Description:
This protein is mainly alpha-helical. Helices cover 72% and strands 1% of the residues.
Amino acid sequence: MTKSKTWSWMEDVLPFVAMLMITCLDMSVLTVVKAAMNGGMSSIVYVVYHDALGTLILLPFFIIHIVRNNGRHPLTFHLLFRFFILGLLGICLYQLLAYGGIGYSSPTMASAISNLTPANTFLIAIIFRMEKVNIRKSSSLAKLFGTIVAISGAMVFTFYQGPEIFQTASSPDSPNQLSMSRPSDWVIGGLILVIGGIVGALWNVLQSATAREYPDQRTMVFLYCLFGTIQCIALSPFIEPNLNAWMLQPDIGMIAVVWGAVFSVVFRSTAITWCLEKKGPVFVAMFSPLSIVIAVIMGVTFLGDSLHLGSAIGATIVAAGFYTVMWGQAKEKNKPPLANADESGSSDQTTPLISSRNESEC
Length: 362
């Protein structure tokens, strides 16, 4: 095999391997966080420490960026207010809702509901007149039909568990099994995640508009992460007043904080940016529903979850709706089909309108 053919083969294979790793690591973060919550860690404690560490990691890169650009893109009060709102929606509210929902339900449900992001964003973009529906165009019909299908799948996932099709051998008295045995918790978790997805979609729309107005994305990302972290810290005494809950021990809770922040900031954003450059946004989007399968495997293996028929049906319907929306978006030649908006976490983002996951973490 010649050198050129070898390099061409590597360029085809490496993005696939990278996206597979990212998807697995995404779910590993959620699984570790869920395990930490099962051990008693509050969602607000994780969000505050995770965001604070992520912002600190971003700080030196932001300083280097500012020095190199020498104030090329001046900031105004209007832009700072936009960044403040982005931090409130994408960092503070979204993460509190997302991890709160995971605490009540599971990473599998969080992964399934996250695939509603393109559909939610599409609906909100229509409301704000950033998208138009033309029933004569196959792309518009696909996005509309896919949105309806994805939302229907999320409702099935949330409100219908059904019989177990795979049961773990873990003890029925384990904390996770006790929490998962209450259907009310499952529904509450699903509803919280759906609300979080709507907040995330609002963030996507505002981020897209802000990125077009202010092209310096590194500055934008750092500032809204900083604002979001400050907002979380300000809310934390009201959500978790128990001082003992804020004492991190060298256990699964500390591992969750460090692993989540380092993976989100150092690895994920860089790898996804490289994959977007090599293969484009549609290729990156194709891996999003795979996270549901990986979340199921990790939940069964490490958390003692059981797989229910309703979860399997709902996840399949959501994935079908997701791919339909993304196909319709790909048909729109004038608009990119996917945003590299980071979730379960990232720091460096590109900002087309519709994203596969709202990973707006630091």
